[in-house]
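Reminder: ligand-aware prediction takes two inputs, not one.
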Amino acid sequence: MDDHERTREAWGRAGEKYVREHADFLAEARTATLFPRELDLLGPLLSRGPEVLHPMSGNGVDDHALVRAGARRVTGVDYDERAVASAQERADALGAPIRYLRADVPPFPGPDTAVDLVYTGKGAVVWVADLDAWAAETARVLRPGGHLFVHEAHPMVPLYELGADRTGVRADRSYFAASHVNDTFPAHGAVERQHTLGRVVTAVAAAGLAVVELREHPEPFWRPGGAEAAAWDGRLPNSYSLLARRP
Ligand SMILES: C[S@@+](CC[C@H](N)C(=O)[O-])C[C@H]1O[C@@H](n2cnc3c(N)ncnc32)[C@H](O)[C@@H]1O
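Here is what comes back for the chain with S-adenosylmethionine:
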């Protein structure tokens, strides 16, 4: 079994969580909002009522947040059958203008220049094996003047030992490794790609998108275990937001 199949199988097991916890996700979807640090960059774009594509949409809760902030319509794409079905059930239950497609991305489904915003992240870029194909597909589906927005874990995060009093660097990890096997995420056993920040920005630029802003944040987008860790005390990068524009 290759890394892609191994990851897909792990997400297949994790997809059961989206079904099992349907009621919780539905409750979250009713009030979901994006992080203030996302809205800082995205708020003005969402207020224009964009058509949005959300690759690797997972539980879909963020799609409700995007609609709440102004998106005209959101198309979520995920390869897990259960993730897509349960997210569609929630969107339909709430009468939200969100549809879900099942596809292994990249390539992205849909025609050229069809969307105003590609929104992705919170555990998405790490599953992309071919970053250049991912960036090229983003550029393909965006209308001229459209934007890519990524809010993602900082690539330093897999190196942190999440102690309550101090942060160590894991002896078994390197910032420059190509990948590691996930041991904390719902998709335990999946192969996470370690794209450095330099690689992500370079792939986006090489696809012809102009970087508008790259912000590194001390806050994590997700706190495994829920407990406080010294790595989240404000001194280290835990997430980043990248906004790029198709000229
Ligand atoms: C952490 S989750 C989703 C992140 C999403 N923003 C959320 O908060 O739910 C990652 C999702 O990516 C999907 N995924 C991973 N690799 C994929 C691929 N190659 N094509 C499509 N979906 C993929 C998984 O099925 C999973 O639902």
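The chain has one domain: 3-245. The radius of gyration is 17 Å. We will return to this case in the review session.
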